[in-house]
Design brief:
216 residues, alpha/beta, 8 helices, 14% strand, RNase_HII/HIII, RNA binding, RNase_HII/HIII_dom, 5-stranded mixed sheet, EC 3.1.26.4, Nucleotidyltransferase, domain 5, 50% helix, manganese ion binding
Length: 216
Amino acid sequence: MLDEEKQLWERGLTHIAGIDEVGRGCLFGDVVAAAVVLPAGLVLPDVNDSKKLSEKKREQLYEQIMEEAVAVGLGIVSVAEIERLNIKQAARLAMKQAVEALEVPPDFLLVDAEKVDVNVPQLALVHGDARSQSIAAASIIAKVTRDRMCETWDREYPVYGLAVHKGYGTKRHREMLLRHGPTPLHRKLFIRNIMAEAEQQEQQEQQLQLDWGDTV
């Protein structure tokens, strides 16, 4: 988890920012990115890909990272911007915002499988959140931040179960979406196939009822 960082530290680059985003595959809500600069030489043994950690462990590590980090930056891109840009560009914009929000200018970026549109040397690592402590720390900050946003959204739209599935397309989320329709924070481009399938099924059921009436 520190191989990339060690090589950069040996080159005299001390402010290494890990970058990751959360929420790219959700049906609901903003996309969130984090940039985290940890002190050179710091080892956080429990830090790992946020998806591999329990919610309780993520919360504990969030507090530890926020306490230990040299700098933390957040980027949040709204549903309206996701619809306007597309999700890939929105995620990249959130990453850019996160880097620009850092109070300490980074010497180098380690990015989870993306390129950030800033004038800073960088390296994209596939599955970076499982290969770099800095990226993993960013994934935890982004994940906890967005999960807390989902808890707030859940109080505003309680029928969808957002606090549980965090906006992803689970069976329950899809069922509630079909039953209650989309909210202003649902990503219209993401749910159009779900809604189109439901409309088609409703039309088929109506046609069956008409056909059955004609045979009686």
